[in-house]
Amino acid sequence: MLNFVLKPLKRAISKVDAIPFLGALSPSPLGPVTEADKTGYLRSQSLAQQCAFEIASLLQPGWTEKQAARAMEIWLRDHGVKSFFHKPFAWWGSRSRFDGIKSYKEFQATERRLLENEPFILDVAPIVEGFISDIGFSGIIGQDPSFDAGISFMETLRNDIPELVQSMSSGGAVWKAVDEKLKKAGYDNIHQIYPMGVLGHRVYKTTAKIDASVLNFGWQSYWELASRGIFGQLLTEDYEGKMDGIWAIEPQIGGLNWGMKFEEILLVEKGLARWLNPDPHWFLRRTSKK
Amino acid sequence: MSAEPLIEKSIPVRKLNTSWIEAGERGRPVLFFCHGFPDSAHVWDHQIRGLQSHFHIIAPFVRGCENSEPGNNVARYGRDAIVLDHLAILNEVTNGDEPVICIGHDLGVVHAMTLVRRLGDRARGLVVINGMDLEMFARRLRDPKQVARSWYMGLMQLPMIPEILANYAPHTGAWLAKALAGGELVATDVIGFDRRSVAPLNQYRAFAREMATIDEHQARIRPAVLAIWGRDDGVLVPPTQHEWDLAALNVTIRIIPGGHWLHRDKGEIVTGFISDFCQACLGDTVPEATHA
Fold it and tell me: What domains appear along chain B, each with residue ranges and CATH number?
């Protein structure tokens, strides 16, 4: 429903790089990515991944999505995070493949309770000392062989993505190649259900510290996208611009009753792509025991 | 009962030192005691000594109390934050599959009920002593009499005033606690409203914020609940069965003569109630019959 409205709009203005007036007021000017910047992004991402891992380790059947999302926000604020690109999302079971989600509001955490043997996804984007990161984390408490197969597929896809970015002519071609791979493996493309159907988005260093959010997204996210031109920032199937820069890549696949994603920062410099953290924790399989 | 000093332990939890009293053998069913305000984990001494030979006892000091470092913002005292402290302690000292029974008094009931809701199938029971969670209290606040009884909670919301009272006129707070508590409370038995209480009083502020967004229709607690109530409590009059039925599926209420600090006033009786309740909840997993 959401994309039914947004996609024609997206095609119409997909070549707009930025809105000049707003771009001039952008709070985080573009520039080359320094080694200090890379360290800052990595620190931000590592904190977010540690948060997701620790909360996933505490989860028990019976927790609601809202409780998990709240726990993640508390964890991050207690570790010094003052604002968010977007606040935590949590999706349980069939909601992790966005079944029944028809409007943006329905992406928000609900009172849905986690069941044993049910996969889940945690997703959060903190701003740590000005560096935006955005991570996705998948998990299960119990067992589901199809979930294990999904993990194997995602591990392979993760290895393939830097090469795809380097070899494909455009971001849109990367989007289509990933779509083809996951469908060939028998999964649904769930990231196409996101607003604009994004496989990823750029992340930035921001100097703004004010903590305010609308619909779970910090004001910085709206500002960054508006000031730089929305569609130059989002890796959609129509994206034609260069891939150089820092991206949060978030493929999401769907199995029969579950969804799974990883999301992490991909660094693209002079056409060469690599994951900022070569060996992250992005999933957790455990029993209800510790 | 042993008179040896109880062992205090601590770990950093989300960057803050967090401490608890631990007794009994690890690996046994866990009794998790949450104290109220103004109090410390030592308020459970009688119960800990009476039950430690059969259970693994964990009694945390709430954020800001004794060796549990104060938080740097009010949210750190809320139930959603403190339950993460409690889960971290449980992760530290248990294998992750031992059954847990939570026991709370006063504000500690808020934390005990939150923990029970987060533990899933591990939670086997809940004992509440003169206290209730925020949803129940929100319903009570529709009664002007309860609002009048809880006037001091309004005082706690004021900036600086409670801190000034605690630091410079601690006798006022001690008198207040004694007057409100009823029963046979001995003033020296309670930690008192003084500078040691300053940080934990932020729980009142955090709870007031959390009450603005509570869901009164959240799922009822599934494990068995034992509510023990001092009949003469000056703040919280005894609950009705209907009141508890809205919060839990299986509740037994025991109202006995006594005040707010029933587990101190009537230590042996309360320990006996807890022991019998645990036996009923845990059955064969308790090593042997437990009677204080």
Answer: 7-285 (3.40.50.1820)
Residues B84, A75: C-beta atoms closer than 8 Å: yes
Instruction: Say how many C-beta atoms besides its own lie within 10 A of residue A33's C-beta.
Output: 17
> Cβ(B116)–Cβ(B102) under 8 Å?
yes
Does the model's pTM come out above 0.90?
no
Chain A environment of B76 (Cβ under 8 Å): 78
Domain spans, chain A = 2-8+22-281
ipTM entry: 0.85
Q: What is the DSSP string of B172-224?
A: HHHHHHHHHH-TT--GGGS--SSGGGTGGGHHHHHHHHHHTT--TTPPPB-SE
CB atoms within 10 A of CB A163: 11
pLDDT digits (tens), chain B, 292 positions: 667 789 999 999 999 999 999 999 999 999 999 999 888 999 999 999 999 999 999 999 999 999 999 999 999 999 999 999 999 999 999 999 999 999 999 999 999 999 999 999 999 999 999 999 999 999 998 888 888 888 888 888 988 888 888 788 777 766 776 666 665 554 445 555 666 678 999 999 999 999 888 876 778 999 999 999 999 888 888 999 999 999 999 999 999 999 888 998 899 999 999 999 999 999 866 655 444 3
The CA distance from A280 to the nearest CA of chain B, in Å, is 21
Q: Sheet with B56-60: list strands edge to edge.
A: B7-13, B16-23, B56-60, B30-34, B100-105, B123-129, B224-230, B251-256
Specify the CATH number for A2-8+22-281; select among 3.40.50.1400, 3.90.230.10, 3.40.50.410, 2.60.120.1440.
3.90.230.10
In chain B, which residues touch A (CB < 8 A)? 14-16, 73, 75-76, 80-81, 84, 87-88, 91, 94-97, 117-122, 215, 218-219
